Amino acid sequence: MLSEKAAYLKGLIDGLEIDDSTKEGKVLLALSDVINEICETVDCIDADVDDIVDFCSSVDEDLSDVEEEVFGETEECECDGHCCHCDDEDDDDCAYEVTCPTCGDTIELNDLMLEDGALDCPNCGEHLEFDFDDEEEDEDDGE
Prior knowledge:
The chain has helices spanning 2-15, 23-71, 111-116, 133-142, and strands at residues 96-99, 106-109, 118-120, 127-129. The chain is mainly α.
């Protein structure tokens, strides 16, 4: 499509019979040549990108085969998203949100961050600690 437009433009310039001895003529003809070179380069890049996409798809399929062979069916995994071969989509189920009392920034936490029991707010640097003893006692009282 781009090459076709460049060829059309070159045809218009040729049809005008521009005099290449004038300054304007030299500029127009040089611009036409540059546009043609850009189109050729873009065509080469497009071909390379198509090759890379095909290669990446092939590698992805091969990796899926290897994952299935090594880990088995990931759809039947009962790890709740905690193992290394589960999809990132499962991580959304494990996310928690905490609001920093100092700056009001909302921080998303995962189970590993909660296990540490503390972290520094990425926005203001306030040290935040998490204590789940009260929650565990509430759960025990409900049973």
